[in-house]
Amino acid sequence: MNDFKFALRQLLKNPGFTAVAVLTLALGIGANTAVFSVINATLLRPFPYENPERLIILQERNAGGGLQDASYLNFADWRSQSTSFESMAAQREGESFNFSCSGEPDWLQGQVVCSDFLQTL
Question: With b meaning 16 or more CB within 10 Å and e meaning fewer, what string describes 67-103?
């Protein structure tokens, strides 16, 4: 208890040091909370899907051996001939759209998905 009283007296004697110490602690706690919130939301929580372990991504290999998205015609063939999958959906990333309600149009990034994409998820 004596140590606590001594520390409190020292902090009251030096208000500049006290302000810097409190500000440093507040910034450190705030930054730590923000980083943990992002990591918790992106890495630690499971996906908000019913059975995330059952979701897979199918891709094709190009002539150079790299992965690429399958063409829609190949996807349509896979879906019509599939006996192993309960449901299949297609999506294409990296699409850009012009959106305008009134005034200047806005440029948006998005994905093109097939009609049963959300039902599959």
Answer: eebeeeeebeeeeeeeeeeeebebeeeeeeeeeeeee
Whether the CB-CB separation of 91 and 111 falls below 8 Å is answered with yes
Helix (H, G, I), strand (E, B) or coil at 110: strand
87, 119 Cβ separation under 8 angstroms: yes
Query: Radius of gyration over alpha carbons of the chain, in Å?
Result: 27
Q: Are 79 and 52 in contact (CB under 8 A)?
A: no
pTM higher than 0.85: no
Tokens for 112, please give them: 């093109």
For residue 104, give Cα distances in angstroms to 11, 87, 88, 95, 100.
Answer: 56, 40, 38, 20, 7
Backbone angles phi, psi at 114, to 5 degrees: -80, 170
Residue 79 tokens read as 């879906």
Mean confidence (pLDDT) of the chain: 88
